[in-house]
Amino acid sequence: MDGCTSCDGRCCARYHVTLTHSEVRRITHCGHDPLEYLAWLPVGSVKTNHPDIRLGTTYHYMALKRHADGRCVFAQVVDAGLRCSIHGIHPNSCSMYPMDPHRAMMRLRPICAVEWTFDKSKEQLNIEDMRARMEYSEIAQMWNSRKRKKRSARDFLKFAGIVDMG
Ligand code: SF4
Ligand code: SF4
Protein backbone atom coordinates (compact mmCIF):
# COMPACT_ATOMS: atom_id res chain seq x y z
CA MET A 1 0.00 0.00 0.00
CA ASP A 2 1.29 3.41 -0.89
CA GLY A 3 0.07 6.74 -2.22
CA CYS A 4 -0.51 10.24 -1.00
CA THR A 5 0.16 10.73 2.69
CA SER A 6 -0.33 14.49 2.82
CA CYS A 7 -3.62 14.25 4.69
CA ASP A 8 -5.83 11.59 6.22
CA GLY A 9 -7.28 10.62 2.82
CA ARG A 10 -10.13 13.10 2.53
CA CYS A 11 -10.55 12.64 -1.25
CA CYS A 12 -11.07 8.88 -0.81
CA ALA A 13 -13.93 9.50 1.59
CA ARG A 14 -15.63 12.20 -0.43
CA TYR A 15 -16.12 11.48 -4.12
CA HIS A 16 -17.84 8.98 -6.32
CA VAL A 17 -15.27 7.62 -8.77
CA THR A 18 -16.81 6.80 -12.15
CA LEU A 19 -14.90 4.38 -14.34
CA THR A 20 -14.24 3.33 -17.91
CA HIS A 21 -14.05 -0.29 -19.10
CA SER A 22 -10.28 0.17 -19.31
CA GLU A 23 -9.91 1.04 -15.62
CA VAL A 24 -12.24 -1.78 -14.57
CA ARG A 25 -10.24 -4.21 -16.70
CA ARG A 26 -6.97 -3.07 -15.10
CA ILE A 27 -8.28 -3.45 -11.55
CA THR A 28 -10.03 -6.74 -12.32
CA HIS A 29 -6.96 -8.27 -13.94
CA CYS A 30 -5.08 -7.63 -10.71
CA GLY A 31 -7.41 -10.04 -8.91
CA HIS A 32 -10.37 -7.92 -7.77
CA ASP A 33 -13.90 -9.12 -8.53
CA PRO A 34 -15.80 -6.36 -10.38
CA LEU A 35 -19.12 -7.65 -9.08
CA GLU A 36 -17.75 -6.98 -5.58
CA TYR A 37 -16.17 -3.57 -6.04
CA LEU A 38 -18.43 -1.93 -8.64
CA ALA A 39 -21.45 0.25 -7.95
CA TRP A 40 -23.96 1.05 -10.70
CA LEU A 41 -25.06 4.61 -10.04
CA PRO A 42 -28.37 5.74 -11.55
CA VAL A 43 -28.00 8.39 -14.23
CA GLY A 44 -28.36 11.85 -12.74
CA SER A 45 -27.08 10.83 -9.30
CA VAL A 46 -23.54 12.20 -9.98
CA LYS A 47 -22.03 14.84 -12.23
CA THR A 48 -20.05 13.12 -14.94
CA ASN A 49 -19.68 12.99 -18.70
CA HIS A 50 -19.28 9.25 -18.59
CA PRO A 51 -21.50 7.20 -20.90
CA ASP A 52 -24.41 5.48 -19.22
CA ILE A 53 -25.01 1.76 -19.41
CA ARG A 54 -28.43 0.20 -19.72
CA LEU A 55 -29.10 -2.55 -17.17
CA GLY A 56 -32.59 -3.97 -17.43
CA THR A 57 -34.70 -0.95 -18.26
CA THR A 58 -32.67 1.73 -16.44
CA TYR A 59 -29.37 3.53 -17.13
CA HIS A 60 -26.33 3.64 -14.86
CA TYR A 61 -22.75 4.86 -14.49
CA MET A 62 -20.08 2.34 -13.59
CA ALA A 63 -18.30 3.52 -10.42
CA LEU A 64 -16.38 2.34 -7.36
CA LYS A 65 -18.55 1.17 -4.50
CA ARG A 66 -18.45 3.16 -1.28
CA HIS A 67 -18.89 2.05 2.30
CA ALA A 68 -21.76 3.43 4.38
CA ASP A 69 -19.44 6.14 5.78
CA GLY A 70 -18.61 7.34 2.24
CA ARG A 71 -15.19 5.71 2.08
CA CYS A 72 -14.15 4.18 -1.25
CA VAL A 73 -14.26 0.39 -1.26
CA PHE A 74 -10.46 0.38 -1.77
CA ALA A 75 -9.66 2.88 1.00
CA GLN A 76 -8.17 1.21 4.04
CA VAL A 77 -7.81 2.73 7.46
CA VAL A 78 -4.14 3.03 8.40
CA ASP A 79 -2.98 5.04 11.43
CA ALA A 80 -6.37 6.78 11.67
CA GLY A 81 -6.14 7.93 8.03
CA LEU A 82 -7.23 6.42 4.72
CA ARG A 83 -4.79 4.86 2.29
CA CYS A 84 -5.43 3.43 -1.15
CA SER A 85 -5.05 -0.35 -1.28
CA ILE A 86 -4.78 -0.36 -5.10
CA HIS A 87 -2.28 2.44 -5.54
CA GLY A 88 -0.50 1.92 -8.87
CA ILE A 89 -3.61 0.62 -10.61
CA HIS A 90 -6.18 3.01 -9.21
CA PRO A 91 -8.50 4.98 -11.53
CA ASN A 92 -7.09 7.86 -13.55
CA SER A 93 -9.28 10.42 -11.82
CA CYS A 94 -7.58 9.46 -8.53
CA SER A 95 -4.18 10.22 -10.09
CA MET A 96 -5.42 13.50 -11.59
CA TYR A 97 -7.29 14.79 -8.54
CA PRO A 98 -8.30 17.59 -7.96
CA MET A 99 -8.62 17.88 -11.72
CA ASP A 100 -11.70 16.04 -12.90
CA PRO A 101 -10.60 14.52 -16.23
CA HIS A 102 -14.12 13.38 -17.07
CA ARG A 103 -15.34 16.95 -17.12
CA ALA A 104 -11.98 18.52 -18.09
CA MET A 105 -12.13 20.94 -15.17
CA MET A 106 -10.72 21.49 -11.74
CA ARG A 107 -13.04 20.61 -8.92
CA LEU A 108 -14.37 23.69 -7.22
CA ARG A 109 -13.37 24.15 -3.59
CA PRO A 110 -11.06 21.12 -3.58
CA ILE A 111 -10.48 19.63 -0.16
CA CYS A 112 -6.88 18.88 -1.09
CA ALA A 113 -4.03 21.09 0.11
CA VAL A 114 -1.40 19.60 -2.22
CA GLU A 115 -0.33 21.90 -5.04
CA TRP A 116 -1.47 20.54 -8.40
CA THR A 117 0.88 20.63 -11.40
CA PHE A 118 0.20 19.39 -14.90
CA ASP A 119 3.42 17.50 -15.61
CA LYS A 120 4.34 15.12 -18.44
CA SER A 121 3.02 12.02 -16.70
CA LYS A 122 -0.37 13.67 -16.11
CA GLU A 123 -0.45 14.87 -19.72
CA GLN A 124 0.17 11.31 -20.92
CA LEU A 125 -2.43 9.94 -18.51
CA ASN A 126 -4.95 12.49 -19.72
CA ILE A 127 -4.39 11.46 -23.36
CA GLU A 128 -4.80 7.77 -22.47
CA ASP A 129 -7.90 8.59 -20.46
CA MET A 130 -9.46 10.51 -23.36
CA ARG A 131 -8.83 7.55 -25.67
CA ALA A 132 -10.32 5.13 -23.16
CA ARG A 133 -13.41 7.29 -22.74
CA MET A 134 -13.96 7.43 -26.52
CA GLU A 135 -13.66 3.65 -26.73
CA TYR A 136 -15.94 3.22 -23.72
CA SER A 137 -18.48 5.50 -25.33
CA GLU A 138 -18.55 3.28 -28.43
CA ILE A 139 -18.94 0.15 -26.29
CA ALA A 140 -21.78 1.79 -24.35
CA GLN A 141 -23.56 2.80 -27.56
CA MET A 142 -23.30 -0.73 -28.96
CA TRP A 143 -24.49 -2.28 -25.70
CA ASN A 144 -27.39 0.12 -25.21
CA SER A 145 -28.66 -0.38 -28.75
CA ARG A 146 -28.74 -4.19 -28.50
CA LYS A 147 -32.19 -5.68 -28.65
CA ARG A 148 -31.36 -8.69 -26.48
CA LYS A 149 -33.09 -9.06 -23.15
CA LYS A 150 -29.97 -10.06 -21.21
CA ARG A 151 -28.85 -6.84 -19.62
CA SER A 152 -27.33 -7.70 -16.25
CA ALA A 153 -24.13 -6.12 -14.93
CA ARG A 154 -22.33 -9.42 -15.51
CA ASP A 155 -23.54 -9.53 -19.13
CA PHE A 156 -22.19 -6.05 -19.68
CA LEU A 157 -18.82 -6.91 -18.15
CA LYS A 158 -18.56 -9.86 -20.54
CA PHE A 159 -19.65 -7.72 -23.48
CA ALA A 160 -16.99 -5.12 -22.66
CA GLY A 161 -14.30 -7.82 -22.41
CA ILE A 162 -13.74 -7.19 -18.72
CA VAL A 163 -14.56 -10.70 -17.50
CA ASP A 164 -14.25 -14.00 -19.38
CA MET A 165 -17.03 -15.07 -21.66
CA GLY A 166 -17.29 -18.49 -19.91
S1 SF4 B 1 -9.26 3.93 -5.68
FE1 SF4 B 1 -7.81 4.44 -4.11
S2 SF4 B 1 -7.23 6.60 -4.53
FE2 SF4 B 1 -9.13 6.18 -5.64
S3 SF4 B 1 -10.79 6.83 -4.26
FE3 SF4 B 1 -10.44 4.64 -3.92
S4 SF4 B 1 -9.00 4.51 -2.22
FE4 SF4 B 1 -8.92 6.62 -3.04
S1 SF4 C 1 -4.71 13.92 -2.72
FE1 SF4 C 1 -5.20 15.62 -1.36
S2 SF4 C 1 -7.15 15.08 -0.36
FE2 SF4 C 1 -6.30 13.22 -1.28
S3 SF4 C 1 -5.09 12.23 0.36
FE3 SF4 C 1 -3.67 13.54 -0.78
S4 SF4 C 1 -3.70 15.51 0.30
FE4 SF4 C 1 -5.52 14.36 0.97
Structure description:
It is a single chain. With 166 residues, the chain is an alpha+beta fold. Helix content is 30%, strand content 16%. The protein contains 5 helices and 7 strands; from the N terminus they run H-H-E-E-E-E-E-H-E-E-H-H. The protein has helices spanning 21-28, 34-37, 92-96, 120-144, 153-159; strands spanning 38-42, 53-55, 58-64, 75-78, 81-84, 99-100, 105-106. Strands 1-3-2 form a 3-stranded antiparallel beta sheet. A two-stranded antiparallel ribbon has the order 4-5. Bound molecules: iron/sulfur cluster (2 copies). One iron/sulfur cluster is lined by residues 12, 17, 64, 72, 74-75, 84, 86, 90-91, 94.
Beta-sheet strand percentage? 15-25%
Low-confidence stretches: none
Q: Which molecules are bound in this entry? A: iron/sulfur cluster
Rg value = 16 Å
> What are the secondary-structure elements, in order, as H or E?
HHEEEEEHEEHH
Mean pLDDT: 89
- Count of individual domains: 1
Going across the major beta sheet, what is the strand order?
Answer: 1-3-2
| Measured distance between first and last alpha carbons | 32 Å
Count of β-strands: 7
Shape: globular
Fraction in helix: 25-40%
Question: What's the story with the biggest beta sheet?
Answer: 3 strands, antiparallel
Count of alpha/pi helices: 5
